[in-house]
Amino acid sequence: MPAPDQALLLIDLQRDYFADPELDRCRDDLVATCNDLVRAAREVGVPVVEVQTVHETDRSTWTLTMVEDGQGVVERGTEGVQRVEGLDPDGAELVEKTRDSAFFGTDLAERLKGVGVRRVVLCGVSTESCIAATARDAFALDLEATLVSDATASVDWSEHDHTLAMLQTQHRQHVLTGAEVAERWRDEAGRDEAGREQAAGSDRVAG
Questions:
Q1: pLDDT mean over 3-24
Q2: I need a labelling partner for 157 at 20 to 30 A (CA). Which of 165, 175, 181, 194 fits?
């Protein structure tokens, strides 16, 4: 298996976020693509991290807009904070956050860099908010990012398309389908294996 120079991040795939009718409509397809990517990641040794937003019921972690609206979301201990139905992260590491970016106020960057990760693949919701904020911070942290077009979603598909195009242009981040990401992983794993076999053959000849 290849060294874990990349990781799959599953972001905010939680019940509260799919209360919106449009996200609920596309939920099954999005979750299925995420599950396919988790299985592909496990096959080639790519680590998987599940990132969840978790707010405290005492409002101590609420954002300015939550305070202004007087309404909490994804609060600890509620049904809404739970993993969206059907998602199977297969024992992924868990990171909790309280703001849009998966890197803000968390140890995610340290965890990733500690195991040699330099590339991240982003899935989840919503494209123009938490996905975009995480992608921008990945760029600031010198992590190459790939956004999965059919494993990210928004309540407004024009925002989804605009955000992916903007990140691709502004930060030169990759936009691929889930199937394309899985194929890339398998191709890289195959090249790594071929390289190891060639090196082992050379060592035997030299010996």
A1: 93
A2: 181
